[in-house]
């Protein structure tokens, strides 16, 4: 009876300093960010963004500092939370925005929920899914799965989710975050097929905050990647270099991690599982490759173009 909604918060937050509890579902989860610097002495300089929603719409929620190691792995996409003693801040304007699965959902972009260990000390409770009541009006997690045959028609930077059978996975490679900097991004290339095209999905998978999954991607596993972005070479031949890359909100799942995930109810995921049942494992195994150097997008044929 004392709950508030995200819509009410946006209208009344300036006139209050104490807020009623919130009941929300996690719809998106960003990678964990480390913002420590040698000259600033902070114990746990971590931050993670989540997009949470109730019946009134969707809002960003930020997990700060020592709450990150305590809660980050427990807050999964689909988790229902009861939040008490949180703070409300104006939104950080430059953060990335995931593409919601439900395009009709209202987004409250001016403010964000701030969860900290003090000022005030936030209380987070996870509500088990079997105790979630329909009358709470919490939205379901929705996805934007595409098949490989649909990929050719999608524009550059389009956001989508994919599922496929891994046929190739490359070695982990590094790229500098900034020229002359000492920080690196870690990534690997993978191919996955879904039976709708002769061509595979070409996936550029950056290490998200799921090292256990990233290191175990191997041929013949069922791979799900969410919040991927389409990358097209718009200059020469647009169809030749189309691939998908991870975004800040991407989540990656492989065989062994799928159970209980919200996407298992999706129609295209079910269609893919039906297709895999018609395939011969021995035949697919012959076509799989692992490791090696994978230059992509391929360099031009001659030095003048290069």
UniProtKB/TrEMBL annotation:
Gene3D superfamilies hit by this protein: Nucleic acid-binding proteins
The record's listing under InterPro entries reads: NA-bd_OB-fold, RADX
Q: Which domain of life is it from?
A: Eukaryota
One Pfam family recorded for the sequence? RADX
Q: Name one GO molecular function term.
A: single-stranded DNA binding
Q: What is this protein called?
A: RADX protein
The species this protein belongs to is Eurystomus gularis
């Amino acid at each position: 009876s004392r709950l508030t909604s995200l819509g009410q918060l946006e209208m009344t937050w300036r006139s209050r300093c104490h807020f009623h509890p919130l009941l929300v579902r996690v719809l998106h989860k960003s990678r964990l960010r480390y913002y420590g610097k040698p000259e600033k002495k902070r114990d746990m300089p971590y931050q993670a963004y989540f997009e949470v929603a109730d019946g009134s719409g969707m809002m960003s929620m930020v997990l700060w500092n020592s709450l990150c190691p305590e809660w980050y792995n427990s807050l999964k996409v689909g988790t229902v939370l009861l939040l008490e003693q949180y703070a409300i801040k104006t939104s950080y304007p430059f953060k990335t925005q995931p593409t919601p699965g439900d395009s009709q959902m209202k987004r409250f972009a001016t403010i964000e929920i701030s969860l900290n260990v003090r000022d005030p000390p936030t209380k987070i409770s996870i509500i088990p899914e079997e105790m979630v009541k329909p009358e709470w009006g919490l939205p379901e997690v929705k996805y934007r799965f595409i098949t490989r045959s649909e990929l050719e028609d999608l524009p550059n930077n389009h956001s989508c989710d994919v599922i496929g059978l891994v046929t190739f996975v490359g070695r982990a490679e590094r790229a500098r975050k900034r020229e002359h900097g000492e920080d690196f991004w870690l990534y690997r290339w993978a191919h996955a097929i879904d039976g709708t095209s002769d061509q595979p999905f070409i996936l550029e998978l950056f290490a998200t905050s799921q090292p256990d999954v990233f290191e175990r991607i191997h041929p013949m596993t069922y791979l799900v990647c969410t919040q991927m972005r389409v990358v097209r070479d718009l200059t020469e031949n647009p169809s030749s270099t189309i691939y998908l890359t991870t975004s800040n909100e991407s989540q990656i799942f492989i065989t062994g991690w799928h159970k209980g995930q919200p996407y298992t109810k999706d129609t295209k995921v079910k269609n893919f599982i039906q297709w895999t049942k018609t395939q011969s494992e021995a035949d697919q195994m012959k076509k799989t490759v692992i490791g090696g150097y994978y230059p992509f997008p391929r360099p031009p044929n001659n030095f003048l173009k290069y």
